[in-house]
Amino acid sequence: MSTYLDYVFFENMVKALAKDGAEIKKQLTPKQTHILHMAVGISGESGELLDAIKKCCIYQKPLDRVNVIEELGDLEFYMEGLRTGLGITREETIKANINKLGKRYSSGTYSNEQAQARADKEGEE
Ligand SMILES: [Mg+2]
C-alpha cells in the first residue's frame, strides 16, 4: 500500500527524471517532429481501431465496418508518412516481416511452441 510520502517521492522523482519540454522543443528537428507526429498518429489510430473491435467483441454490437475501414485508412496514412519520413519502403517492411515470421514459424504453420521459442530472436540481447 502506498503512503502519502510514497506519492510525494514518486511525484518528485518524475519531476526530476522527465526531460524538460522546452528542451525537447528546442532540440527537435523538423524531421524528428514529422516522425514523432506520424508515430503518435499510429498510436492514436490504433486505439480508435481497438475501440471499434472492442464494441464488437465485448459489447456484442455489430461490427461497424465503415468505421473499421476508416481507422485502417488512418493507420495506413500515418504508417506511410512514417515510412516516407524514415526512407523506408512498404516493401522493405513486408519483406522483413516475411523473413522474421519465416524463421519463427519454420514449419510453415502456427504453433504455440514456435510462438514461445521465437527462433527469430535467437542470439539477440
Ligand atoms: Mg481515426
Low-confidence stretches: none
**Structural class by SSE content:** mainly alpha
Number of strands: 0
- The best one-word shape is extended
* Number of helical elements: 6
Q: What oligomeric assembly is this protein in?
A: single chain
Percent of residues in helices comes to over 70%
**Main beta sheet:** none
Gap between N and C termini:
35 Å
Give the integer mean of the pLDDT values.
96
Bound molecules: magnesium ion
Give the SSE string. Answer: HHHHHH
Strand content: under 5%
Structural domain tally? 2
Radius of gyration, taken over Cα atoms and rounded to an integer in Å: 21 Å
How are the SSEs ordered, and which strands pair?
Elements: H1 4-17, H2 21-27, H3 30-57, H4 65-86, H5 90-104, H6 112-117
Helix pairs in contact: 3-4
The protein binds magnesium ion (MG).
Task: Please provide a written account of the structure.
- Helix 3 runs antiparallel to helix 4.
- The protein is built from six helices and no strands.
- The chain has two domains: 85 residues; 37 residues, no CATH class.
- Helices cover 74% and strands 0% of the residues.
- The mean pLDDT is 96.
- The two termini are 35 Å apart.
- With 125 residues, it is mainly alpha-helical.
- The protein binds magnesium ion (MG).
- The site of magnesium ion has 5 residues, from helix 3 and helix 4.
